[in-house]
Specification:
- The protein is an alpha/beta fold and 209 residues long.
- The chain has two domains: 153 residues, Ribosomal protein L4/L1 (Ribosomal Protein L4, Chain: A, 3-Layer(aba) Sandwich), CATH 3.40.1370; 50 residues, no CATH class.
- It has seven helices and six strands; from the N terminus they run E-E-H-H-H-E-H-E-H-E-H-E-H.
- Helix 2 crosses helix 3 and helix 4 packs across helix 5.
- The longest helix is centred in the middle third of the chain and has 17 residues.
Length: 209
């Protein structure tokens, strides 16, 4: 599929690039997209939740009343979950939520996500640019030119654009990554995906079969 190349002012340059159909025009696989997004969100969870169970509660271990003859249920510890101030039964414990996904599944998920954006005409190809110094105002001007100042956007650039990354990192709703750091979640979470013209070859190399 062909996409017109625009400059940082949002105007067409008169050139176009050919995006690989094997990456940007496949039939999306919804299930692998779900799995990859699920893994991404699971890996971000700290898993440090902890509730005190009866073994963690401070208190005496003596039997609080005799076994029989009280007319009430037998009880052996004041730390029992049935008493106020006792430990919680089956409370949460620290754990890892991460799980494994095969490389082929991840690759197909990213291809599906990019194909979804391409089908929705939400991919913009931007000619190569760079900043001499980090300056947020310059990046904001690019967002306004591309009509992305009020939208969530994902910029995929090459590794040489360090100043561009530094200019964008304190802007809400903007995510700048290089071609090897594209995730299914980041692609789907953005309203528009902006691809630098010089990183398309890297993307196609990373995600081709």
């Amino acid at each position: 599929m062909k996409v017109d190349v625009v400059d940082i002012n949002g105007k067409k340059t008169g050139r176009s690039v050919e995006l690989s159909d094997a990456i940007f025009a496949i039939e999306p696989n919804d299930h692998v997209v779900y799995l990859d997004v699920k893994q991404h969100l699971a890996n971000k969870r700290q898993g440090t939740h902890k509730a005190k169970e009866r073994a963690d509660i401070a208190g005496s271990t003596r039997k609080i009343k005799k076994q029989k003859g009280t007319g009430t249920a037998r009880a052996g510890s004041i730390k029992s979950p049935v008493f106020r101030g006792g430990g919680r039964a089956f409370g949460p414990r620290p754990r890892s939520y991460s799980f494994k996904l095969n490389k082929g599944v991840k690759k197909l998920a990213r291809q599906s996500a990019l194909s979804i954006k391409a089908k929705e005409n939400n991919i913009i190809v931007l000619e190569k640019f760079n900043f001499d110094t980090p300056k947020t105002k310059n990046f904001v001007n690019i967002l306004k030119s591309l009509e992305l100042d009020n939208k969530k956007s994902l910029f995929v650039l090459d590794d040489s654009n360090k100043n561009v990354y530094l200019s964008s990192r304190n802007l809400q709703g903007v995510n700048v990554v290089n071609g090897s750091k594209i995730t299914t979640y980041n692609v789907l979470n953005a309203n528009k995906v902006v691809l630098s013209e010089d990183c398309i070859e890297e993307i196609e190399s990373n995600f081709s079969k």
